[in-house]
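Researcher: Here's my situation. A collaborator sent me these components and asked whether they could plausibly form a single complex. I don't have experimental data yet, so a predicted model of the whole assembly would be a useful starting point for our discussion.
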Amino acid sequence: MATDDLTLVKRVRGGDQRAFKLLVERYQRKVYAVALGMLKDKEEAMDVSQEAFVKVYKYLDHFKGDSSFYTWLYRITVNICIDVMRRKGASGGETEEFDESVANDLSEARIGALGSRLGTNPQKSALRRELAEKIQEALAAVPEKHRAILLLREIEGMSYEDLSRTLDIPKGTVMSRLFHARAKVQKILSEYLELDEAKSGVGSE
Amino acid sequence: MAGNPACERFVPLLSPYIDGELSPADRVNVERHLGACRDCAGRAADLRAESALLRVGLEMAVDEVDFKDFTQRVMARVTPERPPLLERLRISLSEMFLYHRTAMVSSLATAAVLALVVIPLVMNQNDAPLGYGADRMRVRAVRASEGAKVAPVVLESDDGNTIIWVVDQDTAPAHDGSATEPKAGTPPDEHDELDGEPLKKGPAKPQPPKGGEL
């Protein structure tokens, strides 16, 4: 039975290095996935993931324990990613934020394009490397803060409550940012799939 | 927006709907609308597909990465200088009990069983005669005092006991200690000229072997 995060955190505070190793092993893949989704670059994502764990270790005494360990870990990860992007000067994607109020801008995406081609099980639909790259590209087109929410939701399956705590924003903002981020990604992926269908007929039913 | 004005109200709710984040009342309303509106049903399907696509796409990207050294590299950056040996032993012991309790318990049980078998065996060996009768002895040193006619032969048994033979060297020179290994109990037999009887026997003298010092 796996030891829960908070118990491990207590042990790390007591000087138990092995407990920290377990935490790293538990979250390394997901932290890396978030960093990769944010930064797109594999090496940068790897560096940021390691940096995030080092920072977590260093500031473990600042962790209050009133929220879960992973929300704190992801907050640190996302903040490092945003720092890296700002330092590079290119935030990737649009620099202006979407309007936080929910607007109905789904009209440009062809309705049903994704759903009809992929269903809800993309593994069955021969997901190709090319498509995985397209996903990265679509993510890069989403403003960084919206991207962070989308990634944390999809990778970690965070609840809106946890997202709100992790990113320190109201729940309503979580909802609207997710809506906009999804609309943007969906538009790019739908266009890609339609283009793909026109080219080779793959994915048509 | 396709025709239905109600869609304007429901489209923003589709994202929290697929995430299971709507209140029960909103959820019922959305489901009622989805039953009547093909466009919104399509939008909800799109959102689900996109969500799954993102997840699988990122998982695929992560699967390509080798995390073998990841933990080690992080640990190398957070580990302070090595604590003293005793502290390290203490920590690794306590960690063993913490994380491998079952393994530790079974190891200890095995060790206990082994001890129960081995210790009596070893004890029985100790029953073998000491000193003179021990099966392996070797000459540690042969040294004669200046002008003396006797030479002490110091033998050491397996258990560290020392036996000192004093042999008459009247007619034969003392043999080289390193070259000669008289069998236990029969050293004098090799030299007919010797008395055949040791002048002095000191079996099982508990002094450490010191190269024949007397």
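Model: Some features of this prediction you could bring to your collaborator: Confidence is low (pLDDT under 50) at residues 92-96, 101-108, 201-205 of chain A. Chain A touches chain B through 64 residues (CB under 8 Å).
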